[in-house]
């Protein structure tokens, strides 16, 4: 209990959840009201601002409630941490409600911010998994935004058992594609909402592609391949001179979203980046499905768009895209563009900045590029940082779930900025699939222990078994222990060498 007043009491559930309170009146009450919010005011009153404001208050009302009766809703849930109960009713418990998607992963280390990020993402994602729809937030909108959903699906599929959940949502995405134009709506199921042609509609490519990679379900890839082609034709129809410049009439045509400062990235730059990514992914899918002529055509389109993007936005004098603002160089590098100086510009900028200036898409792209192109220490330090625009700032403010905006405005249960948490597993613990593997046919363990960590450990349970990793510093070396389930094909990789992993524990000492 936070505070008891004459007829009402305010409670703290301890963390931000989706669910409801179970209450009981000590005597007959004509009406018992339970109100919910994510935050409190300085006077310990419910602050409804982050969940829709005073005109959209989450509450349960119970009429003619008898003494001792347990009261709770049946057909709804709320997103909250704090709740207020009227008429002196007692709070008995809080029920946590979300889809049955058990956690299949764990991450632990001696840096509080990194450990918090893994747990906060899971808690936020679960709070937004209901009825087979990954929502943006569990209160204000509750919409299955295709942008948020495609961005986080890689992390969710790796860290949770959600195969059936995403199979259902794939059906919603398919239902929300215009069969004539190929346009994919910004929410699935369609309930309105803003977005853009690349980062949102691309769910029709990204989600089935990630589903295939995680679960090895070739039927999903086959079923969605015609839809992918139709969507790519839609993006082509919204392009001029190789750049995606528009979407449906009246649409927002967003590029990136929720940058900590006013948006400077041109929308055509971001949407053409996504177009190129999807062209290459669908080309790869064409090869898997034996549709190579389609793949060749898509590669030609991608090459044309790369030339257009470079001509429009890359400066050979500064060696950067759009001056490197808001992760622009990471976008370019992620699709193989730029020159030998572009990555140096990127690394130099963020080493000096020490925090993010990116939106929901740019943040994940930035971290992936830094890890994969030679600056893993910098990538890890950004994830662990605690400056003004960082995950550490959220933790320091007492957050138990991820915010919609870096500055704390808006919802406090939005999973979209949690997408980079996947790299705690695939790049720090180093648990990933080999290139070209699907359904975890071939796993590889390639750990990276940043200099500011003394230890880290965790596991991922894949469709073929569990991979566990423990790394710790001992006597000037790193002791790395990798354990895999029997029957898994997995190797430990370091500095170009690979060692086959046997079932059970395998111990390696790394002299750095």
How would you portray this structure in words?
The protein contains 13 helices and 23 strands. With 512 residues, the protein is an alpha+beta fold. It folds into 3 domains: 94 residues, Sandwich (Jelly Rolls); 324 residues, Alpha/alpha barrel (Glycosyltransferase); 68 residues, Sandwich (Maltose phosphorylase, domain 3). Strands 1, 2, 3, 6, 7 and 8 form a 6-stranded antiparallel β-sheet that branches. The chain has a 5-stranded antiparallel β-sheet with strand order 9-18-19-20-23. Strand 19 and strand 20 form a beta hairpin. The longest helix has 23 residues. The N and C termini lie far apart (50 Å).
The helix content is: 25-40%
CATH topology of the largest domain: Glycosyltransferase
Instruction: Point out poorly predicted stretches.
Output: none
Number of helices: 13
Sheet with the most strands?
A: 6 strands, antiparallel
Whole-number radius of gyration? 24 Å
Strand content: 15-25%
Examine the secondary-structure arrangement and name the CATH architecture of the largest domain. Answer: Alpha/alpha barrel
Structural class: alpha+beta
User: Domains counted in the coordinates: how many?
Assistant: 3
Q: How would you state the average pLDDT, rounded?
A: 97
Under the CATH scheme, which class of the largest domain? Mainly Alpha
Distance separating the two termini: 50 Å
Number of strands: 23
Shape call: globular
């Amino acid at each position: 209990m936070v505070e008891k007043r004459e007829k009402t009491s305010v409670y703290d559930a301890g963390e931000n959840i989706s669910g409801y309170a179970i209450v009981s009146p000590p005597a007959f009450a004509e009406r018992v009201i339970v109100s919910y919010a994510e935050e409190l005011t300085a006077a310990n009153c419910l602050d409804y601002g982050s969940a829709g404001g005073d005109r959209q208050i989450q509450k349960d009302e119970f009429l003619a409630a008898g003494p001792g009766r347990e009261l709770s809703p049946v057909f709804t849930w709320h997103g909250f941490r704090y709740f207020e109960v009227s008429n002196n009713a007692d709070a008995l418990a809080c029920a946590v409600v979300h889809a049955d998607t058990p956690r299949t992963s764990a991450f632990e280390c001696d840096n509080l911010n990194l450990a918090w990020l893994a747990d906060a993402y899971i808690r936020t994602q679960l709070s937004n998994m209901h009825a087979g729809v990954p929502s943006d937030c569990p209160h204000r909108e509750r919409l299955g935004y295709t942008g948020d959903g495609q961005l986080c699906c890689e992390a969710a599929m790796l860290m949770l058992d959600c195969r059936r959940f995403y199979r259902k949502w794939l059906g919603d995405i398919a239902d929300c594609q215009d069969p004539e134009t190929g346009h994919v709506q910004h929410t699935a199921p369609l309930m309105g909402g803003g977005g853009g042609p690349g980062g949102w509609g691309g769910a029709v490519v990204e989600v089935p592609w990630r589903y295939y990679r995680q679960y090895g379900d070739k039927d999903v890839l086959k079923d969605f391949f015609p839809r992918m082609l139709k969507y790519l034709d839609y993006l082509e129809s919204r392009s001029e001179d190789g750049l995606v410049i528009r979407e449906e009439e009246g649409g927002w045509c967003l590029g990136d979203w929720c940058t900590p400062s006013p948006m400077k990235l041109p929308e055509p730059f971001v949407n053409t980046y996504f177009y190129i990514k999807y062209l290459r992914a669908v080309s790869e899918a064409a090869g898997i499905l034996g549709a190579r002529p389609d793949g060749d055509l898509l590669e030609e389109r991608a090459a044309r768009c790369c030339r257009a993007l470079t001509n429009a936005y890359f400066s050979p004098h500064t060696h950067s895209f759009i001056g490197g603002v808001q992760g622009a160089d990471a976008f370019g590098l992620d699709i193989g563009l730029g020159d030998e100086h572009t990555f140096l510009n990127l690394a130099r900028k963020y080493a000096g900045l020490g925090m993010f200036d990116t939106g929901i898409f740019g943040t994940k792209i930035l971290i992936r590029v830094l890890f994969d192109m030679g600056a893993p220490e910098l990538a890890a330090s950004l994830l662990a940082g605690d400056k003004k625009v960082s995950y550490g700032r959220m933790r320091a403010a007492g957050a138990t779930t991820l915010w919609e905006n870096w500055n704390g405005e808006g919802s406090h249960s939005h999973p979209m900025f949690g997408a980079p948490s996947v790299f705690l597993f695939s790049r720090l613990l180093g648990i990933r699939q080999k290139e070209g593997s699907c359904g975890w046919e071939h796993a590889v363990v390639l750990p990276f222990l940043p200099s500011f960590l003394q230890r880290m450990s965790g596991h991922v349970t894949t469709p073929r078994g569990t991979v566990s990793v423990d790394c710790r510093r001992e006597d000037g070396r790193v002791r790395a222990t990798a354990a895999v389930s029997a029957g898994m094909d997995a190797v430990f990789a370091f500095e170009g060498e690979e060692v086959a992993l046997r079932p059970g524990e395998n111990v390696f000492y790394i002299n750095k």
